[in-house]
Amino acid sequence: MISRKNASISKFIIHKVGNKFNDTKNAFSEKIVDFDEASYDLMLPFLLRPFGSQVQSYRFNHHADISLNEINSYTTQLFNDDEGFIDISKHIVTHLFEQSTSAQIKTGDVLIVMFEGIEFRDMTTNAIGIFKIESKVNFFQTYLENNSYDVLVQKGISSKKVDKGCLILNQSDTEGKIILSVDNNSYDAQYWTNQFLNIKYADDSNNHTQQYIELCKEFSTEVLKTTYGAQEQNTFLAKTIDFFKENEVLNVERFKEDIFEEEKQIRQFEDYKKDYEGEQNIVIRNQFDVVESVVTKEKRKIRTDIKLDTNIQIKLDIDAPEASSEYLERGYDEEKKMHYYKVFFNAEG
User: Fold this and answer.
1) Residue span of the structural domain in which 306 resides
2) What is the four-CA torsion angle of 65, 67, 72, 75, rounded to 10 degrees?
């Protein structure tokens, strides 16, 4: 995550990207934007706000040589000499256009921005931002005409969130340049991260923590819920989050010993982990440092509702891993020929 308290915009340009699938063309600007004070004060936080909560970073990827990654090459040129800012920004938009090979890919405004004073992990650096605005919103504009006010509807960019954006920092580690990316439209995720940017998660504790929680979520859905039911699934997820909160280092062997009570489930988890790694083309570490901010973010995504076909839902507390096994019983009523849950409590809230 970054801090933007000392950040500023040094160069900013807007182009429009078309879609080669439906034969819409690009439109390029020839000058950088000269902001007035009000526009600048609104634009700067609008662009950088999404990265203030990003806990995972990316690195450039390429099957042959990382220097051949287009965005890596263009941003390297800009960091070394920003005199070619306008021409290189056009090359970036052209590269984005070349990836639009589907009718799903939307046209839109592309903002290429150079930032100064970005703070990241106790470092202050400059950065290049690439943003794509795909959705415009309607708003009312009032105006005075013939001594009376009237109103009309106009379309514009919402200042609430960007559709797609990335921030390439002028800082590198052993894996390359540090990149943050956001995508609020999930319909074409491969287009932005894999095809246009060609980036992958950094091989660090943030990624290891996120990957392991994702593994556990998928295992709970595909194995535990299918085999043992939603109660067992949710109990496992609550225990998993509790384990991550209680341990600074995750050791896979200790995790299995603490979480599972039956040897059969341990074997199921090991088999699933092996298949999962093959399908995702990743290797999950057997030991890594737990990143608390990633655990907090992933916990918010977990849903522990048990939805029944009788229009009743039971919501379990993800922070109370023992509650499900202690105060919730599942059974089968022979007379009604239906499953049931029995809930124990002292008082209603």
Assistant:
1) 206-343
2) 180
